[in-house]
Design brief:
It is built from 4 helices and 6 strands; from the N terminus they run ααβββαβββα. The chain is 36% helix and 26% strand. Bound molecules: methionine sulfoxide (SME).
Length: 151
């Protein structure tokens, strides 16, 4: 599937009759399956009133990092910065939480609901520097759609 087909599938899924959790799971599964360099795809959300992220749905190897304090790792930094974070090579990052030696790069895009950063989509790849503007655009689209589900 190319990006526009993926966007179409995601829109159909978002508008379907499934639970939010099921929709998020299918988005993770679809992205991981369709984009060969997406080796782990997951959603983290703010954990209630706590200044931490909690892992929600994901596709790929289970991770022990199910709770990430704000400020820690790439995910925790995005929780505070409200900015996309593309890491072409994780070895060049000091504030990085490793989810396994195979992971070489990462992209994290925040999800906003009513202007508030409430979570993010996080993708790990086993290759160095795979992410382009197309990934950013596709994942921003996904985050906007997910935001609509959470309104
Ligand atoms: N690498 C992330 C931790 C989460 S895992 O990639 C699933 C980080 O540095 O925040």
């Amino acid at each position: 599937m190319n990006n526009s087909q993926l966007k179409e599938s995601i829109t159909t899924l978002i508008n379907s009759d499934n639970t939010v959790s099921k929709k998020l799971q299918v988005i993770c599964d679809l992205l991981k399956q369709e984009i060969e360099y997406y080796d782990w795809v997951g959603f983290y959300f703010k954990n209630g009133d706590k200044l931490e992220l909690k892992l929600a749905e994901f596709a790929g190897e289970p991770t022990e990092h199910t709770i990430i304090p704000f400020g820690k790792g790439i995910c925790g930094q995005v929780a505070l910065s409200n900015q996309n974070f593309i890491v072409p090579d994780v070895e060049a990052q000091d504030n990085y939480i490793s989810c396994g030696f195979k992971v070489k790069s990462e992209i994290v895009i925040p999800i906003f609901v009513n202007g508030k950063n409430i979570g993010q989509i996080d993708i790990d790849s086993h290759i160095v520097n795979p992410f382009t503007k197309n990934d950013k655009l596709l994942l921003e689209f996904v985050c906007k759609k997910v935001s609509g589900l959470l309104l």
